[in-house]
Amino acid sequence: MTTPARPTLRCLREDLDTDWDSVEDQRAVSRVETLGRPLEDLQHPIVRKAAEDFPVPAVERQREGISGLTDPMWWKVRSGARWRGAVYVDQNGQAWLCAAGYRRMGESSDFYKRFMAEVKARGADHFLPSDEDHLLLAAMLDAASFDPHYDARFDQWEAQLVVWIQTHASASLRSREVQEFNADDAFGQPLARVSVMAEAAGCDQYDVYVEVVPINFAALDELEWAEHVMLCALDPTEQQWETTYMGKGRAYSATISSTESSAEGSHTDATAHLPGQSVPGAVAHYAHRERLVDCMVDGDALRSVCGKWFVPRQDPDSREICPMCDLILAHLSPSD
Questions:
Q1: Cα Rg for the chain, rounded, in angstroms?
Q2: Which InterPro entries match (predicted)?
């Protein structure tokens, strides 16, 4: 678990002596151990810009390194015409704002010129996160993991996913047109572009097609769960959805009866389930052994060899083997 780019204690205390947006935050630098707030939330232009440029979850973007410094790699951060910073990303993916200063073009006191000279003279360790920095970060993350508001954020996110997919499926059913929306993650960052099409198929049945194209490729695990929550919101029946892989995304299709579907916008069996809660299927599937064990313990859904979702909580010996899984497995080599 990581946070947006976080300033080191040395950077806060030695480099950021002016331009604070909050006098209280500037005073708090001397007592950050009892601050009770993430350091990346402190109101200083370069701290704020570093957190924006190195968010959580990580976002793929072009970054400019500080030339001449490659071990470790340092990344440039710019805030307006005045402040410049140096960010280091550790082996856990945590970004740190390790140094900052003024831009003075053409002068030896320009931040990047001075920083390069000091790294070469003192060594990178002088600027890298200290043991105290790591201890404070670990304590903050431990506190966050037990914070009830943290769990509530994910509950609200799952509920929002349900509302999004049901609202757009209902609109598609009425308009007979594809409906599109951006699904955000629990922190409000764009996660994927979702398209949904629903149309009547006769006899109180509906054909539903959902296409999901990732926006943030650094959060694919989170996207996988979001897809599961949205599909369950339309029809929680495991093994109901057919999966098609298309380019960078996935498409799901199913024929759903009106008693199961939430595409009509009514409160049906699908909405009676908790977000992501599915109904067991009738056949046994093959899946990756390592993922299978984890999901059996946690009660999570996983994707089978044939592409269908299921929660491995039933005795597979009491059910017939999925014919598609069986066929695919028969054509795989032992090394696969």
A1: 25
A2: DUF3039 (IPR021400)
